[in-house]
Amino acid sequence: MSFINFYVDFENTFIYSAACHRSERRWPPGMPPSIETANPCNIHQLLSRSKSYHTCMRHILITMVLLCCSNVFMTFAWYGHLKTLSHKPLLFAVLVSWLIALFEYVIQVPANRIGHQVMNLGQLKILQEVITLTIFLPFSIFYMKEHLRLDYLWACLCILGAVFFIFRERLVG
Q1: How many CB atoms lie within 10 A of CB 165?
Q2: Which of 66, 73, 125, 127 could form a disulfide with 104 if both were Cys (CB 3.0 to 4.6 A apart)?
């Protein structure tokens, strides 16, 4: 017996899972196989459909990398001046922060456009928050010399809960 499970996850978060025996399941004549009706026993159809999955995953990974880079700039723009420019006039700190934020936006806007092709706005925002905490924790501990507190753990657990609920359809079908 040959079983094939095939998962496609894109646009409408459609998940198609099929299992079949080699000798079973023939589609009626004249019914063209589409993503919903593709013969799961046909390896060529499965491979062509998997390109959509790989494209989706590539968009998500590119989005994550770009958001990580933009968050490094954002974190320094928002909080770096507290350590390095605290003795300078406020206007100078604002201008330096805006200059850093410009680079952040140059990276963040394309990241959001790419990510919005495969995620809805809520998913994109929660992903952004997870990345923000991931970047902010090392920044606050190693650069700003803040002490790690248990409150960071609770905040991370709340964000993980948000990730589960916003991506629930994709995670559990």
Answers
A1: 12
A2: 73
Contact assessment for residue 67 and residue 75, using Cβ atoms and an 8 Å cutoff: no
**Which among 171, 41, 79, 67 has a CA at the least distance from the CA of 129?**
67
CB 74 within 8 A of CB 104: yes
Domain-wise residue ranges, the chain = 70-172
pLDDT bucket at 32, cuts 50 / 70 / 90: very low
Torsion of CA 125, 172, 63, 146, to 10 degrees: 60
Instruction: Tell me the whole-structure pTM to 2 decimals.
Output: 0.67
Convert 44-58 to b/e letters by CB count within 10 Å (16 or more is b).
Answer: ebbeebeeeeeebee
- What pLDDT digit, counting tens, does each position of 6-25 carry? 333 333 333 333 333 333 44
Cβ within 8 Å of residue 14, ≥6 positions away: 8, 35, 36
